[in-house]
């Protein structure tokens, strides 16, 4: 069995396991709809008192909310649940079985669990983006193409951040709180970086680039994007992917040493 087929089998099995609980799917879908309603309600209340927020209009913030749902949905669909399982396996010693599989361990670790209901977040995000673009109008084919590319870059960037945090289990052992804090920090990405104080803005842009993953594609989708910020997002994504791979290799050597 080749690697692609083996990976497909794992994904299919995970999907079937989740679809057994259809009531849970309905509950999670309702939760996603309510969460979106609260987010849009907050924007409406805010813009009943101001005309713009850090240079963003109401339709632009709605679009940013949609991109936030898409990026977060991609991460929470597969990567976050898969890495939570990986952390548990390292702690209880069953990670050895993953290393015996004839496929790249990092790829398999990141794609083994599927929370299928998170696809609702992605669908809602696409719908919100479509409505927002309908209200303010399309900025042109080039900015839209750049925005689509940067949504993928943002999702990849966040996946790399999650991998870096999860890989720290090889050194820190107990990292459950780290993953929970990371999930909470991602909520900052639903607002533009300009609303935060300078020190926090720098942290959320350079150190932990949460806002880069959503605000930069939103800027391009609204015709406000700059080549400099787009290039920074791509370079940050590449750097974090390389870092996550390097840490993974180092962590595997440490894990093998501890297991021998």
Q: Which tags fit this structure?
A:
single chain, 260 residues, mainly alpha, 12 helices, transmembrane helix, ABC-2 family transporter protein, membrane
Describe the structure.
With 260 residues, the chain is mainly α. It contains twelve helices and no strands. The radius of gyration is 19 Å and the shape is globular. The mean pLDDT is 85.
Helix and strand layout, with pairings?
Blueprint: H1 3-19, H2 22-47, H3 58-92, H4 95-99, H5 105-109, H6 119-136, H7 141-167, H8 169-172, H9 176-185, H10 198-207, H11 210-221, H12 227-259
Helix pairs in contact: 2-3, 3-6, 3-7, 3-11, 7-11, 7-12
What's the number of structural domains?
1
The tally of beta strands, per DSSP, is 0
Binned, the helix content reads over 70%
Termini separation (Å)?
Answer: 29 Å
Structural class: mainly alpha
Q: Name the shape in a single word.
A: globular
Strand content: under 5%
| Low-confidence blocks of residues | none
* Average predicted local confidence, pLDDT: 85
**Biggest β-sheet: count, sense, barrel?**
none
């Amino acid at each position: 069995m080749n690697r692609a087929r083996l990976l497909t089998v794992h994904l299919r099995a995970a999907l079937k396991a989740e679809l057994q609980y259809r009531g849970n799917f309905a509950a999670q879908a309702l939760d996603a709809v309510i969460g979106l309603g609260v987010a849009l309600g907050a924007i409406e209340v805010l813009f009943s008192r101001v005309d713009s927020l850090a240079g963003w209009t109401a339709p632009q913030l709605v679009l940013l909310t949609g991109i936030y749902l898409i990026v977060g949905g991609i991460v929470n669909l597969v990567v976050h649940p898969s890495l939570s399982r990986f952390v548990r396996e390292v702690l209880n010693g069953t990670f050895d079985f993953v290393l015996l599989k004839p496929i790249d361990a990092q790829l398999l670790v990141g794609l083994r669990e599927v929370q299928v209901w998170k696809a609702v977040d992605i669908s809602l995000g696409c719908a919100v983006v479509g409505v927002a673009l309908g209200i303010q109008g399309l900025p042109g084919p080039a900015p839209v193409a750049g925005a689509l590319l940067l949504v993928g870059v943002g999702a990849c960037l966040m996946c790399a951040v999650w991998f870096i945090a999860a890989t720290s289990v090889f050194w820190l052992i107990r990292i459950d709180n780290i993953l929970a804090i990371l999930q909470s920090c991602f909520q900052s990405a639903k607002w533009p970086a300009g609303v935060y104080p300078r020190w926090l803005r720098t942290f959320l842009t350079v150190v932990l680039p949460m806002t880069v993953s959503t605000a930069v594609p939103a800027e391009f989708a609204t015709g406000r994007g700059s080549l400099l910020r787009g290039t920074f997002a791509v370079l940050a994504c590449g750097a974090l992917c390389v870092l996550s791979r390097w840490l993974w290799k180092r962590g595997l050597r440490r894990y093998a040493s501890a297991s021998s």
